[in-house]
Structure prediction request, 259 residues.
Amino acid sequence: MTPQSPLQTRTRGSLDLSDLPNCSSRERTEARQLHHRLEDEIGCVDLIVTDNRRRMLTTRSRDERREIRLHHMFLGCSEEVVEAIAELAIGDESRREVIERYVRENRNAIRFQPSEDELQWEGEHFDLRTVLRAVLDFTHDTIEDVDDTLDDISITWGRDGRGTKSIRFGSYDFDQKLIRVHPALDQQWVPRYFVEFIVYHELLHAICPPAEPDEDVTDDDGRRHVHTAEFLEYERAFPRYEEAMAWESEHLERILNRD
Ligand SMILES: [Zn+2]
Prediction:
């Protein structure tokens, strides 16, 4: 018989970790500890730990229960932060800045690296990692002050979205630091320099991010897509820029109508 600790006899809220199917046992422990500490402060708490990269912390009350949804970056946070969260959950905003500072300082936890087996860089005709390496060499030679921005960028062939009238050859995911290249470019008749140009374009998005990273600036195809003057200048520095642009307009139709 195990004696019951005072904590176990209390009415407790729930702890939901379903958003983190692969979390470690350490994270589980930290989540339980955080849950306990929050309940010590304000009573029954339903705690939901999320991987939501847009909303770091939301709270609401239902009867006597407090529901707190927070990003897993808060696991293992300091006592000061726990208290600020607890206060916020009962409507006291006075220490909101403690939370905001914590989020700023731990923003890296929001970026998760895609695991290697999710990435597919080997195509039938192009190995995207080889392409990326060549483009990185060129980029570092051409653009100053790139620093370590590009160090942990990954690349993969994207999914094939056939049947659409427009096509995006590449995209850059800021959260994952991941370049996706459209698989329609993995064809023998597509010149290597064009694939390099697409990868270079997406790298430039990492180098010239939108002023407000959370602000969605949408273009015609409804995605965040920002090309500043600086961006366009760098883009024109690509050695075969004119050729790449010409190739694209000449072959767009063929790529769109591929079978
Ligand atoms: Zn772009």
